[in-house]
Amino acid sequence: MLPRTYENQVCSVARALEAIGDRWTMLVIRDAFLGVRRFDDFQRDLGIARNVLTDRLNRLVEEGILEKRAYQERPERFEYRLTEKGADLWPVLVSLMKWGDRHALADAGQPTLIVHRDCGGEVNERFRCERCGADVDAHSSAAMPGPAAPRRWPTAAL
Amino acid sequence: MLPRTYENQVCSVARALEAIGDRWTMLVIRDAFLGVRRFDDFQRDLGIARNVLTDRLNRLVEEGILEKRAYQERPERFEYRLTEKGADLWPVLVSLMKWGDRHALADAGQPTLIVHRDCGGEVNERFRCERCGADVDAHSSAAMPGPAAPRRWPTAAL
User: Fold this and answer.
1) Which CATH number, 1.10.10.10, 1.10.3720.10, 3.40.50.720, 3.40.50.10490, labels domain A12-86?
2) Are B12 and A97 within 8 A, CB to CB?
3) How many other CB atoms are there within 10 angstroms of residue B40's CB atom?
4) Partner residue opposite B99 with nearest CB, options A89, A96, A150
5) With contacts defined as CB-CB under 8 Å, which chain B residues touch A26?
6) Do A99 and B89 touch (CB under 8 A)?
7) Domain B12-83 belongs to what topology?
8) Exposure letters A27-61 (e unless 16+ CB within 10 A, then b)
9) What does the domain layout of chain A look like in residue ranges?
10) What is the pLDDT of residue A16?
11) What ipTM does this complex have?
12) Contact present, B111 and B146 (Cβ < 8 Å)
């Protein structure tokens, strides 16, 4: 059993992992960055059990990483969007992706590229545009299918 | 139950999380960056069950993130050090720490600072030295106690 908190750890890494340190949680956040917003779309893309997805989404709303908004009234339907706190996880996701590109999928090539919206240049592991040198963040970047993108990139839901 | 692999996920984030997507694993890696090398020191710092720590260390050695080296012959004793693949996780750790500093420990202040070895400047969330502007990486940086460091920073073992 993994404890929910690390009481004796005065550490920002430990605190961050309390909020997001679960693999499904990180994949939910990844999907949110790719534009997934609705329960059924998360569910279809991740192939995750509905009760587990409900738990992870509720937890992310409680943590202030996602916000739940009604997009339809009868019947009431909700979507989930990244808050600013959630959008601030962009460097964590990009760093994980770059490490995975280099070390876990080295031979297969990159499934996803992060590009600078203004000029289309690729964003490197220092969050800088390789073409124009600008500092890029969550708002000035977009994810694009890379050379090794699967047929259903990033998700059939989009 | 969390599956070990996400077979239908052609994604570097998913692949990276297979290797390191467990909270204890990330804290073991954090300790390795802080200079912890020996089983008993990891154990004391993390307060983790010995069998869980053995499992996580073995898995990190299998993944090529840590390497196990004998440092004593009779009795034989081992230490664990980050490989280059492991050192490449530095941006993931720093990004998690910066997010935790901002969003999880905002009022308490920073327990740990990352500084540029050459000039002592603080390293920002773009891995750049705030003092001299240099690009910093795992090898050219060091972790230092921050304004909110606990008394036993980073660990009693060091």
Assistant:
1) 1.10.10.10
2) yes
3) 12
4) A89
5) 13, 17, 21
6) yes
7) Arc Repressor Mutant, subunit A (1.10.10)
8) bbbbbbbbebbebebbbebbebeeeebeebbebbe
9) 12-86, 89-145
10) 81
11) 0.88
12) yes
- CA dihedral angle for residue A96, residue B85, residue B39, residue B98, rounded to 10 degrees: -40
- CA A142 to chain CA centroid, Å, is 12
Q: Least CB-CB distance to A100: which of B15, B26, B30? A: B15
Distance from CA of B13 to the nearest CA of A (A): 5
pLDDT in tens, B30-44: 999 999 999 999 999
Nearest CA in chain B to A1: B52
Partners of B18 on chain A (C-beta within 8 Å) are: 23, 104
Say whether B13 and A100 touch across the interface (CB within 8 A).
yes
Q: Biggest alpha carbon distance in chain A?
A: 49
Question: What is d(CA A30, CA A28) in angstroms, rounded to the nearest whole number?
Answer: 5
